[in-house]
Design brief:
Largest sheet: 3 strands, parallel
Number of domains: 2
Distance between the termini: 36 Å
Helix content: 40-55%
Radius of gyration: 17 Å
Shape: globular
Order of helices and strands: EHEHHEHHHHEHE
Bound molecules: L-tryptophanamide
CATH topology of the largest domain: Rossmann fold
Structural class: alpha/beta
Strand order of the largest sheet: 1-2-3
CATH architecture of the largest domain: 3-Layer(aba) Sandwich
Length: 200
Amino acid sequence: MSKKIFSGVQPTGNLHLGNYLGAIKNFVDLNDDNNNKCIFCVVDLHAITIKQDPHELKNNIRETVATFIASGIDPKKSIIFNQSQVPAHAEGAWILGCVARMGWLNRMTQFKEKAGKDKEQASIGLYSYPVLMAADILLYDATHVPVGNDQKQHLELCRDIAQKFNNDFNADGFLKVPEPLIQKEFSRIMSLKDGSKKNE
Ligand code: LTN
């Protein structure tokens, strides 16, 4: 069965060997498999959940796409695009935000880590980040989403949202419930500056 694969990548800049081995190389393999239809989305709306310099962000978006192409993702075969250029992502996130429950989002461990001690000062965007991620995936009827450990919980939430939506509106199968593609675990590539840490 052919797979429709969706993945989002944050335009963080400073891409390094760890990113290549951890994610991009995997994307190239997925791109090369003729059974797959791949969509790679540079998620700038996710990036602005924490403060960004607009010029740097613009550069980072281009750098991310350039790295994809240089690494072997074929833009004629796979779709590479910029999230904020498609308004349906933000619109979908709003609608799904009315389906997702506070209790579900309160359990997201990444928010707890990123928000730190002072949750009152975290942006609402950072809190609802996984809802936007669900919109990304569900908009395209993706069948599979490559996930590393850090995104498993977010994909699980996306599945819950899709199921609740279909249930609430009595529309079985309207939103496709995506499956995880568990990424092969790569060795941790340690920083050359400090061998006890990973590059971020
Ligand atoms: N949250 C992900 C990026 C991301 C994503 C997505 C991944 C945004 N939307 C949709 C898969 C599918 C991250 O930080 N790696």
